[in-house]
Amino acid sequence: MSIKKDQLFSTPIDKLGDWTFDEKVAEVFPDMVQRSVPGYSNIISMIGMLAERFVQPNSTIYDLGCSLGAATLSIRRNVNNKNCRIIAVDNSQPMVERCKRHIESYKANTPVEVICDDISNIDMQNASMVVLNFTLQFLTPENRQQVLNKIYQALNPNGILILSEKFSFNDSTVDELLFNMHHDFKRANGYSELEISQKRNMLENVMLTDTIETHKKRLSDAGFKHIDTWFQCFNFGSIIAIK
């Protein structure tokens, strides 16, 4: 499968507006996420490793905010337990349509259902693994605790939540350093100053980041007892929470 290069912001845009996961973004998303999110490939592959450890027979795995299905496919490749199924959810129809095609092109025993909906509307139960891979940051802050509470209630004992996010930091010196290093990462991957600036402006009202401490507090409030950061690269990372 050929990957189309992300050039969405390579020329000046008169009215930027707010970020949406529309058809244009879906078309270039594989290239965009690889060149924009430090450690993304590592997180995806390690989600599969965690699935091998935590997915239980006769249970459901939820990939909430599945985009094109990278995490779903990683899980599917590593799950051989009987009577498991994966439910992948995204509220972007263009993402869901492409996700379905990707899922269909990789045959495996574990069935996958791809749903176009707001993750807040999903009735979850009998879960052994839930993935929020760079998803929570696009929810309004007042809805984040409610979603985490629902996930905790849906998880079976020893079930795991994987929460990947872009982080902010209370220490302004550290926050600025990691912010600038992320931009250096994007420059090294071929993005121009114009592309970096225009994308940042579109995201600033849509992607609202939290500190690691805030994430851990929410997870603790939801009921999780075992919580820690298991991966971090610059201001991007992933947290595990085990019931």
Automatic annotation (TrEMBL):
Its EC number is 2.1.3.-. It catalyses: prephenate + S-adenosyl-L-methionine = carboxy-S-adenosyl-L-methionine + 3-phenylpyruvate + H2O. It is an enzyme of class 2 (transferase). GO terms for biological process: methylation; tRNA wobble uridine modification. InterPro entries: CmoA, Methyltransf_25, SAM-dependent_MTases_sf. GO terms for molecular function: carboxyl- or carbamoyltransferase activity; methyltransferase activity; S-adenosyl-L-methionine binding. SUPFAM superfamilies: S-adenosyl-L-methionine-dependent methyltransferases. Keywords: Methyltransferase, S-adenosyl-L-methionine, Transferase. Residues 61-159 form the Methyltransferase domain. S-adenosyl-L-methionine binds at Y40, G65, C66, S67, D90, N91, D118, I119, N133, R200. Catalyzes the conversion of S-adenosyl-L-methionine (SAM) to carboxy-S-adenosyl-L-methionine (Cx-SAM). PANTHER family: CARBOXY-S-ADENOSYL-L-METHIONINE SYNTHASE, TRANS-ACONITATE 2-METHYLTRANSFERASE-RELATED. HAMAP family: Cx_SAM_synthase. Belongs to the class I-like SAM-binding methyltransferase superfamily. Cx-SAM synthase family. This is Carboxy-S-adenosyl-L-methionine synthase.
